[in-house]
Amino acid sequence: MEYRCLDCHQLVLLRFGQIRLPYFAHQALASCQIFSDNESKEHVSGKYQLATYFTERGYQVELEQYLPKIKQRPDMMLLYPEKKQKFMIEYQCSPITIEYIKARNLGYQQMGLLVRWILGKPYQKKQLQDGTLAKFAQPIGANQIGICFWNTQKKQLFKIPWLKLDGQRSIKNYVKLKKLADLQIKQLVRQSKSFNIINNQLYQMHRSLWGIPWELHNFKHLTGGLKCSNTLALVQLYLFIEEQQRCTKDTLFDFTKTLPWYEFCSMDQGVVQRLWLDQVLSEWTNLKLVSWESNYWFLLREPTWFNHLDLKIMSLHQHNETLIGKDSGRIKYIN
């Protein structure tokens, strides 16, 4: 496969050596700085593999094309002729700041160009923090956000959805319902000991945070992005609906935006917030907790609040399929 330099139009080849890292070089002698001499082996190999990967799938690939209007040089530009879609690929293997990502994305937006970030091997060696996930989260399918990775050994592009379940550290590890409930109750007991607005609000209503109904626990995976636990957010959303009695979609969305969210760099935060809200309302509808009628959301019933942990545990064992459903959300990789 051949690639030409967009600056001098000469042929560039990927060369390998026993001592030097793989690098792009001009076939003929020329003075051109289109390719960086400081790129790591992982970055150079991955970029070349991605170019091949997309070419084999019908895309026209242009490597390192300089965009003078915004003074940026994406790793590659893809054009899908049939749909006339053009978008940029940024292949990231090293740490990068939020400010830099936002600046890069803003430049592409000014030109009306879409951009997708793909993470290399260094980002796959460890459990990514939520702040890092928020940097690179982007749409990966219908009603789903997540992270894109490139595996240079398998030469495979794979996507991991960003989903959160309180008490479960990774979507790859399945936690049984009994253990999950125990972890979440312990977390709520610890949170009840601290002075916070939610705890005080519940206290005034003769309720407690640890005694919330099982329906308000986070037993199904929800889209990531919240700085607080999903359960705390669910309690606040429920109390808001209970107080308002009837809520429009816009009213609930406005309230959802007041919850603590991470800053997103590669997609609209509002899209994430609305997706999370839709997932919650869908689950609560299945549990017959809320209903949509005449352009309003309202509570169908008041779930059981508990004043004793033993009663709460007993209730879970007796009604777990009714309150939570038969599955607790085992998640697989998306290839």
Automatic annotation (TrEMBL):
Residues 2-35 form the Competence protein CoiA-like N-terminal domain. Pfam families: CoiA_N, CoiA_nuc. Residues 39-192 form the Competence protein CoiA nuclease-like domain. This is Competence protein. Signal peptide: none annotated.
